[in-house]
Write a structure and sequence with these properties.
The protein is built from 3 helices and 7 strands. It has a 4-stranded antiparallel beta sheet, covered by helices on one side. A hairpin with a 3-residue loop joins β2 and β3. It is elongated and about 75 Å long.
Length: 167
């Protein structure tokens, strides 16, 4: 049996969303740079006139649309991730895990009061994903229980992995 207490929900959300947030930032800034480039190109093409303006007329609008879509995707994803983190901070709770041979028990507490407890059999997990910093256990396609490797001893982590291999 292994016991693990996860960081508070907001910290878990921040750490688990870090890669997605970085990708959203890249999209956001690439979109801004592309929009600026298209607008500068518009000014230059208009100033030069002639053939440059004809080239702009044929592809300039499409370049602006693609740039705007990239920017919008980055903006939407950044906003969604920030909103999820803010929601997690507004409803602070802690998850405590007890890993047994065939199942884990997850107990959620908020302000010291137990709000839920569930028993999840490893065989019922939809997905198990191991990354460098964590193991994510998915009981369904949208919910993940995240076990951060830096919050657990090497022996306990090995024991959890042995339980999961036998699912």
């Amino acid at each position: 049996m292994v016991k693990y207490t996860a960081p508070d929900r907001a910290e878990t959300q921040k750490r688990f969303s870090a890669k997605s947030y970085n990708i959203a930032n890249i999209l956001f800034w690439v979109g801004i740079v592309l929009i600026a480039a298209v607008l500068i190109w518009t000014g230059v093409a208009t100033f030069i006139g002639g053939e440059a303006e004809e080239i702009y007329d044929s592809i300039g609008i499409w370049a602006l649309i693609v740039s705007a879509v990239i920017f919008a995707l980055g903006l939407v994803f950044r906003s969604a991730i920030k909103k999820n983190i803010a929601n997690a901070q507004n409803t602070p709770y802690v998850s405590e895990y007890v890993f047994e041979e065939y199942y884990m028990t997850v107990t959620d507490t908020r302000l010291g009061e137990k709000i839920s407890e569930s028993k999840i059999y490893y065989r019922d997990l939809a997905k198990i994903k191991e990354e460098k910093d964590y193991i994510a256990l998915y009981p369904n396609s949208v919910t993940a229980h995240v076990i951060f490797k830096d919050g657990i001893s090497a022996e306990d982590l090995a024991e959890i992995k042995s339980y999961l291999k036998n699912k």
